[in-house]
Design goal:
This protein is mostly helical. The chain has 8 helices and no strands. GO terms for molecular function: calcium ion binding.
Length: 206
């Protein structure tokens, strides 16, 4: 796995990545704050685009993922309890996750290879994998990656370049286990050369 940061505070580089996730994949109405309606809009758009019918396993999983993530944001991010999550509050949530991870690393029986993450984040990563894996064959390919990111305003050139980077020019199969590794690197790594930085299709966060 790529170099993960051991610093207590998130770096400016990490914050830029996480804010890109906030603005690109969640704040779809671009009003600068996240509300429950943003999560509903994102879920409905994604389910419709992906053909996940109401009542299907993937539809229900997406519903659980967005509900759990919103609850976590409310508990750990929405400091003033106004039902809105600002970019600053979003960063505060990820800062707490980072602090919890570093605390676990100091424990005697910590296993670096396991790299446990919260259940809601596991489900979010699996949901994102299913979103990209449009054919359902258990592997994300470059055309699927480009197609899905196109709905979020990422150019075909950027998407394809990013895919070639984190797949090492197609040498690495982007299965769920590897995709999970990339997502964790995106959230935790402060190394600008880490392959997980490119999982959203953005090539430069400087």
């Amino acid at each position: 796995m790529g170099n993960l940061s051991n610093k207590e505070e998130l770096s400016d580089f990490q914050k830029k990545k996480l804010l890109h996730e906030y603005h690109t994949f969640f704040d779809l109405n671009k009003d600068g704050v996240l509300e429950w309606k943003d999560f509903q809009l994102a879920r409905e758009k994604i389910c419709e685009k992906s053909g996940w019918k109401d009542g299907s396993e993937k539809f229900l999983n997406a519903k659980r993922v967005f509900t759990d993530m919103w609850r976590y944001l409310q508990d750990d991010g929405d400091a003033n309890l106004d039902g809105k999550v600002t970019p600053e509050e979003w960063i505060r949530m990820w800062q707490r996750l980072n602090s919890e991870y570093l605390t676990r690393k100091k424990e005697k029986h910590f296993e670096e290879k396991v790299d446990k993450i919260p259940d809601w984040l596991e489900r979010y990563i699996e949901y994102k994998f299913n979103l990209f894996d449009r054919t359902g064959d258990g592997i994300i390919d470059i055309d699927e990656f480009e197609y899905v990111l196109g709905d979020f305003g990422v150019s075909p050139k950027s998407a394809r370049t990013a895919f070639l980077l984190f797949s090492s020019n197609h040498e690495l199969r982007v299965e769920l286990s590897y995709f999970r590794q990339l997502c964790i690197e995106f959230c935790r790594s402060d190394d600008q050369g880490t392959l997980g930085n490119f999982i959203t299709g953005k090539l430069d966060f400087t």
